[in-house]
Design a protein that fits this description.
Chain A has 384 residues and is an alpha+beta fold. In chain A, 54% of the residues lie in helices and 15% in strands. Classes of the chains: A alpha+beta (384), B alpha+beta (395).
Chain lengths: 384, 395
Amino acid sequence: MKYLPLLWKNLWRRKVRTTFTLASIFIAFVLFGFLMTIRAAFSVGVELAGLDRLIIIHKVSLIQPLPSSYEARIAAVPGVETVANNSWFGGIYQDPSNFFAQIALEPTPYFKMYPEYRLAPEQMQAWLADRQGAVAGRALANRFGWKLGDRIPIQATIFRPKSGNGDTWEFNLVGIYDGDKGVDTTNFFFRYDYLDENRAQGEGLVGWYVVKIDDPSKSVDMAAKFDDMFTNSSAETKTTTEKGFVDGFAKQIGDIGTIMVAILVAVLFTILLVVGNTMAQSVRERTSELAVLKTLGFPDGLILALVLGESVFIALLGGSFGLLLAWLFVQQGDPTGGLLPAFILPGRDLLTGVWLMLALGLLAGAIPAAQAMRLKITDALRRN
Amino acid sequence: MSGVKQIIAVTWLNLRTVPQRLGSSAVAVIGIAGVVVVLVAVLSVAEGFVASMRDAGSPSRAIIMRSGADAEMTSGLSGPETDVIKQAPGILRDGRNLAASAELFVIIDLPKRSTGTSANVPLRGIEPSALLVRDNASIAEGRMLQFGTNEAVVGRSASRQFGGLQLGSQVKSGQITWTIVGIFEADGSVAETEIWCDARTLQGAYRRGNSYQSVLARLDTPSSFDAFKDWLTANPQINVSVRRETDYYAAQSATLARLIRSIGFGIAALMAIGAVFGAILTMYTAVATRAREIATLRALGFNAPAVLVSVLTESMALAAFGGLIGGAIAYAGFNGYQTATMNFQTFSQVAFAFRVTPALLILGLVWSLAMGLIGGLLPAVRAARLPIATALREL
């Protein structure tokens, strides 16, 4: 600790150089924060997905509907706690670019199955009392400035209404649900009975089922049991865990995680060179000074530690501020207005960032520090 | 010596001394190359995606869907409606064959090779006239499917990206098994991600009755589009929207391309700031190590602007070098790289190849020159302002 002032003084002997080195590291870790946030946006759904929830879809593809009569048969299987059906609506609110998920479902079983979606009891009551009622996630409501009581018209693309004006379905916003950090609050839920009674075609069909089972360890057996149950029926099924389903869906977009990591490697490699070069220069300039320290009796190990300490210090200082800025930015909320399902910088990635700073500092300082340690006093003093 | 001659002389002297400062110069070069690689690589994704969509469309083809539907997936047309559509004026005729194909567009769950997880692969039911309509598509291997059977042909990209789609293989889906009898090509466009089968067979397999989702028609000339569209939209028997195929695909690629581009520019801009700092450091070092030399030049009568320009030129030369290396790496590493992603408008996979175009390489070079200019500015001013007497005295 008593060498800290010496370290600090050495750092600022070339103010411009240190400032720019700090700035490079700062930028690198701002980028680190952003890239990890993008990565998390696509992976957080997988982490939050329940292990005790299974998704049953049509075997041919997700877009093929399943009969609603399956619900009772699934519920009768021992080990099933709750069954809920979901149907994709795929409508347009004002403009096709305002994309968000609209899902028809039965409110009570669905919200029982997803305790991470929090809806006030009185709003649930209002929803159950209003067939045209709908609830929106907090992020979605904020995106369009919706308030409770708003009437929301959505233009159908798949399901045309039997009656009403043209293709438009109207909903009353009776509730706004919240969720913990990372929970997707960009969905729009409305009642299945409203959809089923009022659509021109497709009665008695649902999109897919979500099943909650009492023992997550049996998920594979249960999945096989459901699929066997519907073999050779008009609609065969494919059952996966919710985790597997969400993961597979994210992978359809592409391996976002790998792409982000590849970019990061390019960034950090560049910064490593910049910092390494700075340290090498500063050691070169201080050759005679280091020789004097050695003459005064500073052991080799201490010289090594001093140079390494300097580069680790720079990395930690610049990096922490960069990560802090990224974190502050992420706290402001999603700039895409709800396009990304989640916008968080996970604590685990912050920790990874700190480790990376240490690694960066040590790597960048390693060669110059070793050179400084091996310096022969006589040679060094003779150099100029 | 005249001003210009001075500038040339000092700049040349400068550039010749770069090898003596190889280490620190390399840092600037590599930093800038890194930015260019990331910029060009990310933008090449958007470029490839847009190209696969653009090449799929032809101004002489029109796609007819139910009004209100913005993609085939959500559209629906009854058999009789498609018959009405086929009577519209302006559709190309080849002898007795009419260049219009009523089609179904659904998805089928198949494993994606790169991840092993299931993917939504587009499956299109076509009519015998489909190849006449799509003049850019042709069977490359095997043969065309026989209508009335459960044979299918797959696009080149689909065969590459998804498992089980080789010539001769069988794909079981629900109660039907498709036999792959051919592989078709369509200029590498989005159509190559699809599997084609007989529309009638598909209607049965997916329980669609006598219904379709779209009609694709080839017009006798691109200019007959307006008359064609007016006839269809004025017809009271049907309620459809008519789009040029080019417009349809352009609209589909717009959102994703914009997203990729903004991410690419955002990341590259941040990286560029870092790289500029690296370049500034390099150039300050260059100026510092040559302080005596520069002072000597000034004492000999070389003026300040000459020194300023020489430092800037060195910085920009290093940057340009970095830009060239970055462009070369991006081209070698990413051009033609095959991948597939999800197109949310059609809810299905689109296979495409990254495209590192000359325009992107030039953009990369422009960025690198800009970084070199900004990075060299402060050190150049410092060099030009160097007080001669003190600099000469320094060690």
